[in-house]
Amino acid sequence: RCQSEVKGQFKYFFVFDSPGIPYKQLTVGVPKEIFQNERRVALSPAGVQALIKQGFNVVVESGAGEPSKFPDEQYTQAGAAIKDVKDVLASDLLVKVRAPTFNPALGIHEVDLMKDASTLVSFIYPAQNPELMDMLSKKKTTVLAMDQVPRVTIAQGYDALSSMANIAG
């Protein structure tokens, strides 16, 4: 349901929808990055612990943190469940460093394993990946492209490129 109201020269839209889904019913998935030589992981055990405290369920693919020196045990201690790639990619909210790609070990594209109407937070580079965007659109995926976050002071807390530069420094 949507309602609009005009005040002066501006038109405001109010969306009245369902109250949403409680965090405890949402699963956040952290898959292992399969891009060649990628050593980062989308969430550290500390990040997992913060999400668990908020009430989310978190599943991490076995070995996802190994290249970043985060063993599975640290994720389980933080409250995450260790699952296989198919279970992780079927999460409600998926966090990845690199955009989804074809998984040669499984012989299928990661998008094909994603749940319909899920949310993806990742570096996507939409203008450079129209085929990927089309695949995600067909799955009705909500995409938060981290590379599209403005690099301004007010958004600096969400600017992953600055965060990576700080870590590298």
From TrEMBL:
Keywords: NAD, NADP, Translocase. It catalyses: NAD(+) + NADPH + H(+)(in) = NADH + NADP(+) + H(+)(out). Its EC number is 7.1.1.1. PROSITE patterns: ALADH_PNT_1. It comes from the Eukaryota. Gene3D superfamilies: NAD(P)-binding Rossmann-like Domain (3.40.50.720). Pfam families: AlaDh_PNT_N. This is proton-translocating NAD(P)(+) transhydrogenase. Residues 29-168 form the Alanine dehydrogenase/pyridine nucleotide transhydrogenase N-terminal domain. The keyword Ribosomal protein does not apply.
